[in-house]
Amino acid sequence: MFFKDFREKLGISQKEALKKLGIQQATLSKYESLSIPPSSLVIKKYCETLNANPTFLFFGQGPHLLSAAPKVSVENGYLLDDLSCLFLQEELAQKLREILIEAVREKVRGIIKDVVFVKLLDAFTSSTFIKQRQFHFLYYFFYIISISKNKPNITIQNAKNFILETIEGYKTLLSDDNAQKEILQLFEARFSEDECFKLLEQVDTVLLLLERNMDISTMENLRISALPHKQI
Length: 232
Hints:
This protein is mainly α. It folds into two domains: 3-67, 434 Repressor (Amino-terminal Domain) (Orthogonal Bundle), CATH 1.10.260; 74-224, no CATH class. Helices cover 67% and strands 0% of the residues.
């Protein structure tokens, strides 16, 4: 939960937040210190009173204000509702993931070795912990690799070790140590040195391609979330 981060982004004190939300200071402090989980009514109050984006409150992702979050058009919303009547939720999620993967492949087709990139997408989409915001995670991965690769005086002698050390050195987008461990294990088991070298070779180009149609505020929030555990 990112209640304290949300309030700080609003630039208001706890006292000001209490007045707007109509809750006790002790309760707000417990939400912000993660001592107790908020109820659905509290989440609703944050959204309606403070214009909070629930995705930011839960995951720390995307713009903190709901009004700044990317919108699904009414027509697309109806289409998703209709599809929900025809498919089980997991079936629908799988079909949407397939559309996402194909769209990302089209973005980078001819730029990066297709087989390597498909392996990378498969690794992320098969992850136990990356079931949501997979495009965000993909962008985050290429971003942290790019900024690590482009640091001054960097010499890369082993591409696979460099990628593993970069993943290990940064906080994961999901704020979950298990997610980080799983991605490290996936890379260790599935990717050869040659494949990792090919990914490094094209990382900056792929990053630019992924950014072409991204919402600026989303991109900036993903970049801000790239916080290193240590200097690498």
